[in-house]
Structures are given as structure tokens and as C-alpha cells.
Amino acid sequence: MKAISVTVNGQQREAEVEPRQLLVYFLREQLGLTGTNVGCDTSTCGSCTVLVDGRSVKSCTLLAVQADGAEVTTIEGLGSDGELHPLQRAFHEQHGLQCGFCTPGMIMAALSLIEEHGVLDDETIRAGLEGNLCRCTGYQNIVAAIRDASVELAGARS
Amino acid sequence: MSAATEEGTRWVGQGVLRKEDPELVTGQARYIDDLTLPGMVWMTVVRSPHAHARIGKVDLSGALARPGVVAAFSGEDLASELAAGLPCAWPIPTTHWPEPFDSDPRMPTHWPLARDKARFAGDGVAVVIADSREHARDAAEFVVVDYEPLDPALDLEEAAADGAPVVHEDLGNNRCYTWSLSGGEPEQVFLEAPVLVHERYVHPRLVPNAIEPRGVLVQPVASQGEFTIWSATQIPHILRTTLALTLGIAESKLRVIAPDVGGGFGSKLNVYAEEVLCLAVARKLGTPVKWIEDRSEAYVATIHGRGVIQDIELAATEEGKLRAVRVKLLADMGAYYQLVTPGIPLLGAFLYGGVYDIEAYHFECTGVLTNRTPTDAYRGAGRPEATYAIERAMDALAHRVGKDPAEIRRLNYIAPFDEPHQIAAGLQLDSGNFVAQLDRALEMVGYDELRKQQHARRESHDAKQLGIGLSSYIEMCGLAPSQVLAALNYVAGGWDAAVVRCHPTGKVTVVTGTSPHGQGHVTTWAQITADRLGITPDDVDVLHGDTAVSPLGMDTYGSRSLSVGGVALWHATGKILDKAKTIAAHELEVSEEDLEWRDGAFRVKGAPDKAKTVPEIAFSAWTAHALPEGVEPGLEATSVWDPPNFTFPSGTHVCVVEVDTETGATEIVRYVAVDDCGEVINPMIVDGQVHGGIAQGIAEAMYEEAVYDEAGNLVTNSMLSYRVPSAAELPHYETDRTVTPSTTNPMGVKGIGEAGTIASPPAVVNAVADALIPLGVTSVEKPVTPERVWRAIRNAKEAT
Fold this sequence. Notes:
By secondary structure, chain A is α+β, with helices and mostly antiparallel strands. Chain A is built from 5 helices and 5 strands.
């Protein structure tokens, strides 16, 4: 076991983890943050996407020990005071989800895309979401939601 | 007819935002792997690496010695726990339908863990139980099984032939059934007709890939002999009944809960070995047991879809007027029957004539066992196969008689009808207006202009050729009349149920027998209830997916939820209104005839201010201080709806592709869908279903295929090697609707869950084939990968 210290959604968390523990299972099973989902075992589906030091990372590709000292943001860390984050609200308003299983990963990936590129056009969104699979929506409403949210989040800045 | 039909609608027809979303977008959803119980142990299934092998000794000692291991069992060890094998609810006999059949259906034995032989690579042979996911998985590596490999039956045609390796020796050969159906005089028409078209289409197996893998958690209450089962399932009610039968436990002692479920597409419409095993082990050990499927495990352990070879023949006049359709299928069952495996081809059996007016029809299907993962329902189930065959063949007919694909369809459509219409295959369609859908789709896509552009590119020998593909479809869905299901030898009924409970505070709880997993029933059902009872969707809570809460239900599959479960809700709210009207008349001191339902209340005719709302009546029904004589306290009603017929959504899709004739790469440049699902409750949700359906159909047409090697191993065995398309691969969809109300139910609704997946594969492949016509390519197979297209072009060049 190895001791790690990770700031998760603004809270510093100390824990002992097995060296082979993946970040996603550390978040889900040790911290109880089950909003981050596991949809595959090949780092393909992107359901487990979180932010590590502000950039989107598939949390099944990182060992928990590698996150030692990092800042991690999960879906539970978005929004505040009972208000949805603009991306969460946009997914709701554009019907950008059906079963919801891929949604937390989609939202975290989108947040990183907006941070990186500002206001997004459809082509950038589609290319940027290549590592996040959804089987329900056909992506069109996801793209629309991210486009809307990018205007709200980054519009003022550009 | 109950009172509410007098009123217009306020919420129905609106794109009301989903009530389901807040928990899903904030990470507060509870999927199966999010659930944990004190004392819970983990199960891992040890699976055969061989497609076909006799099982010798199963040595569990190595696994039992590993850290954290609690127990391990072979198939023989658990034999005494089982009262029956895994269930098949749709045994298909050999028969010419609807004639009675002489001999019982041939049924392969299916234990949750194989005992004598492993019959596909992935067949479970043992389970290991440990105190953690990791310990169970680690220990499973130490189970040693003596296998004696046997030749596998893999190729569908070879497996059907005499002399093939036999998957189930007690059945003698791999042919399970041959089921046929005729209408009119097909043989005569085929003798007479001057134009005959014969096409052969191969449907590869598909892997469903709901983004949430399957999972089960069982909590035993040993002292009571009771069990709670959480499963990522579409069918909690059917699962409860079948688990009771399989494990010999009284149904009343089983509570099945479908928690938040991360997509299904038919793959969770089943009763799986792991559900039975978790329950059997939990009973044996007296401790909670959990199993979560790995994605790569899902590729072999969860059912596959499609897997059909079709020979379709059309008989037509020289002008291209279609007269008869004759079709012969070989359908890959896989190694066992799962819940409805053999019945899947029958869901398409009546539909190979498509939307066309024909006089004669013949369908025949032979089900074949192979040493591969069992097949079963995957989005569309039987109907995508039928639509693909007739729509590809219609293009072949158009080419043959020198007509445009739009014109050949227009010439052959069944004329618009709003009363039930009998087709040659024997079904009564509920309503349809196929030409209107074609006209709208052609208008949206700008068909004539596109043909001009295509012509110009052909003339200039452009490396990028344009292709335009049409697909007109009809599907039978909304399973449906219990008596018809009985005639098809389906074991269960086709009804569904709803409970409406009006609370004294004016709020309403709806309990539905459907079990949504992304379809938005909570919102849609609230909209229906709001309009019926004169309240708002916010006043309505909808409960589902728990057999203790909703004891009556037939669950969610086959685009049935709205047209069966939603209509049950409509009837239940009607009963509420009937009772409320009686109480309102009593309180307003008028006769019921003097009341009308208007603006969300029962109002005295001519004196609309004298009124009672349903919430007001709910309160007085609860206090019961002054109810009319003979009226019971409370305002609650249950309705069970068994539809008199299926429903028949229809539509026309148009796909426009650009094919790079040098590389074989296809790009979809336009995709237009005009669908008709009858009356629409929530257009936002309907569009979402259409988008997702088209995406899955495009995936089938262009990307996805389960590929096996010669030993029977699935080569495309993970998300790395099996290509589920992302946003980067899929196009923008342009959607519209026509509305032809169903005559099957009082709401006029039809269903929309599968339409996109049924319509889109032939639209895409027809478009690719259309682009390749100037290159002399006569045949392309799905998925139309760049390599396949490139090879087709090269072969055509070599032939000239």
C-alpha cells in the first residue's frame, strides 16, 4: 500500500492505495464518488473522464498513485449551491443524454475542450469527442449542448 | 369513452425537458456498479477459451487457495441448486404458420455453467467468489479445466449441413426449426412474372455495446428465504418470474429492481447465466453477491444481434410493379437459446414485403445452432434484417427495369389508409401514408438537384462519386396482442399495466410496468397524466423498475412502452376521471350529465365557475366525509391494457454519400429522416430516439461486425477492435415527421425506439451502391468499410 494525497473537487483527501489501484476505482470505491462511470477495459469509451490538474484524463488510464499531489475534478465537483453548471444545464436543455451513463465523462471532456479552445464549432466538438462513446443519442444533441455551453462559458472571453 | 377526451392538450406534444436529467448530469444516478452492501462478495465467471470442447475435470483447488477467496463452484457443483435451465420464452416449432405443429420445438439444454461441453468461446464453466473484485479476478486465473477440444460448427451454412460438428448431440443436428408463412399464390406469380430479381444478403453479427456493461447484485434474507436482486436489466418483471422458475423460489420471495440502467438496445432484454448464478450463490452462501461484467467479457457473454443470410426474390412486371416476394433465411442462433433467440427472425417474418402492395408472399427461416455466442434481440430485432432485404432488393429491381429508386417505390407503395389494411403476409397494418413520407423526404433532401449533381460528377469521372440511397420501412412493434403472441408460440402475454394514485395533497404517483433505461418514460408519462388530470408534469412522480412497487408489468423492449404501457396509463387516468366525475357531481349537486371536462376541471355546463378539479376531488375522496353512496374512499386506479393489434410505425430515410473511388472511403454528407410514429407525446424525446437509432444503423452499415477466426474466437473482442462510432464519424441528421394516428389504441401512438435502426442500414448501403454504379459495381456488403468498397471497385475493374 502507498499513501497518497489528492485534492478532489477542492477537498484534500489522504488515502492508502494498492499500487495497482486505478484512479477511477480510487474515486468510485474509496471516495464513494460514483458519478464517474466505467464502460470499458481498454480506455476507449471515455465514461470515466475526469479533470486532472485542469485537463481531461480517462481515469482508467492513470494509477491512483500517479495522481498523488494532483487536483482532480469529477462530475460531482461541477455546479454549486444546488445550481447546475452551464454544461450540465446545456445537456439537460438540449436533450444531450438518454441513459446518462456516458454523460459525466462527456461533460468533463467538453469542459476541457472549452477550456482549451473557447467557443466551439461543431467540427471541433466532434473531433474533440472522439474518445467519448455514447450509444443512445447519436451525438447530435451532445454537440448542440456543448456548442451552447461553450458560448456561455467562453463567449465573454473571446 | 371516458370524460377526458373532451379536452384538448397542454403538455402532450410539447418538448418538455426531462425530469430524469438532474441526477444523471450531476453524477447522482445509481447504476448497478454504484451499489454496495455490507458483507458483499464478488463473483467472477471462468469462461471457456475454446469454441467447442468436452469438459473433463474442473480443478478449483488452486483458486480456493488464493487470498480472499470464499468459494468456487463448477457447473456440476451448482446442479442441485437449479430447478430448470436458463429459460427460452419463445420456442419455435417447425411449422407452416398458422397451421398447428405436430412435434414439440427442439430445445437445446442451457445450464448457466456448462457441464459436459463448452459450446462457445466464453461459455461459463466455473465461478469464483472472493472478498473483492480484484481477488475474484486474480483467483479465477487459477482454475484449471481439462478441455478436450472438438471441431466447432462456425460457418452458418456449413453448420446447417449434415455432417457438421453437432453443437447439442441430443438434438442430432444443428437445425433447430424451419418456420414458414405464405400468402396468396407465390409459386404461380413467380412462374408468370416477366421480371425476377434474386439477391443474397449477409448480415454479420453485431455486438450491442450498451455503454454500461451488465451487472447483478443479490441480497439474501436467509431467515425469510427472501432475495432482492438488482440487475442492469430491461425486464425486471420477466426476470422475477423466470428466476423463480429456474431456481425453484416462490415469486413472492423475489424482489427484482432495475436501478438506473445504462442503455440496453435489447442486450438487457434477457435472463442471463450470471443473474441465475448470483442468486444461486447468494442462496448457498447466505451473503450478498455481486457480479459486474468487464467490457471485453461482454463481447462474448452478452448476446449478439443479427447473424442472418438471406435469399430474397422479387417477381415484378416489366414496368417494375412488384407482385410477389419470396425469402429464405438462415438464422444463426449461436450455441444456446437465450430468452427469445429463435423468435427474432419471426419479428421480421411478416415484413419482407415492406411498404409495397403485393399479391403473394412466402417466408421461410431455418434456425441454426453454431459454436458462437447466442444471438437474441438487438435494436430492431428481425425488422432491420427484413427492411434491409426488401429495400436493397427494390433498388436492384429499379436498376433492372431502368427506373429511379424513388419512382420504383412510388409505383409500388400501398395507397394511404387510415383503417386497418390487410397485407399479403397476413397482418393487418394499423394506418399508413407512405407516399407522403417519400415526398417530404425528397423535398427536404432536394432530390432532383442532387441527381443533377450526381450526373455531373459521373460525367466528369470525379474521383469522389455521389450516391443517394432511399429506404422506406414499416415495422411491427408494440408487442402486443396476447392472443397473437400465443399463436406465435410466445410464452408470455403482451399487455402492460399502470397504477395512478392521487394523493390528498393534489400530487400524483404513477406506477408503470415499463422499465425505461434512457427513453424518458418518467417525463412522457408525467405529460400524459398532467393533461388527463388537469395538473402539471411537476405534480406527477413516476415509479418503475421495481417488482415490489410495480407488481404488474411486461417491461421495455420492441418499441412497446408507449403504445402498451402508456396506453395503460391513459386508461387508468380514465378510471380516475370516471370516479372523480361521480364525486364532483355529488359535491356540486348536479347530475354527471350536467358536467363537462374543460380547462382541467369538471365544470357545470353553462356555469363554468362551478367546478371541481381532480386535486380537490382527491382530497375529498381521502377525507371520505361526504362521498356519494357506494363510492369507496381514495382516488386510485389500475389498468392493464392488452392491445388488439401491433402498431406499425413507418417512414422514409434518404442518405447521401460521397465515396472516394480511389480509397473506398465513404462520407455521409446528408442524412434525412421522415418518420411516422403516430401521435407524438414529446417531440424532443422522439427526435432523440430517431437520432440514436440512425446512429446505430449507420454503425451497422459502415463500421460494426463481429469477426471470428477459424477456431471460433471472436477477433473483434473489445472496444479497440470492434468499432463503435464516435461523434467524429457520425453525421448531422435532418429529421421530420408525418402523423398518421394508429388505429390500434385510443392515443393514436405507434412507437419510435427502433425506427432509426430499422430504416438506416439500407439507406446507407443503397447510397454507397448508387455511387458505385458508374464503376460497374453490382454488389456491396455491409459494413461498407473502405476496404470492402475498394475491393468491390477493384473487382469490377478486373471484370471489365
